[in-house]
Amino acid sequence: MKKEWIELLYERGSTRHNWIEPSNHEKIWKEFEAEGITLPAYCTLNRKSLERNDLRILTDDYIISFKYWNRKKKQYDFWTIEFYKGFIWDLASVPRFLRGIIENDSYEMRLAAMIHDVMFGLHLETYRYCNKVFYHNIRERGGKILRAMLAFLGVSTPVGKIVYNQYKPKDHWMKNFVKATKNDKVIWDKGLVK
Predict the structure, then answer these.
(1) How many CB atoms lie within 10 A of CB 13?
(2) What gap in Å lies between CA 129 and CA 151, rounded to an integer?
(3) DSSP sequence for 112-161
(4) Which among 109, 131, 80 is positioned nearest to 17, based on CA atoms?
(5) pTM of the model as a whole
(6) Per-residue pLDDT tens for 46-61?
(7) Domain-wise residue ranges, the chain
(8) Nearest Cα to 77, choosing from 194, 149, 2, 185?
(9) How many CB atoms lie under 10 A from the CB of residue 99?
């Protein structure tokens, strides 16, 4: 029997989102504030992503559960990630020159990027593990092999490794908008490392 690298188990909610641009961020922050949701300070967001208009903000809650084959441990890891309204992500920081080829904001890429950004930004797993989950999530959602491979190579650069090592999860802008569970153990809950 062939092992599946990744399998979607459950999802609920919507990945509806707005783009965050320098021209509209004040309006978005006020709308969320009116609902009692405190967003991170605009100046703390990823500068390069702001300049490229790569940031998205989730307008609904979204939950996904999946299992991922961990080759190293020769077992499945079971993940549940809850994204709360106000979650901000930057499309997995795939280099700009690859964006047109891989359609970085397509459905399969958007969801894979959300998962990748959480695992990567909050150091829920190793750099390589995060990038492999990104690749397999694209494939699970129907992304073509070439598109998934280019996206994987795009995030697996030496620059990506440097960025991963520079992130400080406790200071990351997304820290209060995520709950992550791995193998029935909560490992991140709205800013609290478990």
Answers:
(1) 15
(2) 14
(3) HHHHHHHHHHTTSS-HHHHHHHHHHHHHHTT--HHHHHHHHHHHSSHHHH
(4) 109
(5) 0.89
(6) 766 666 567 889 999 9
(7) 6-193
(8) 185
(9) 17
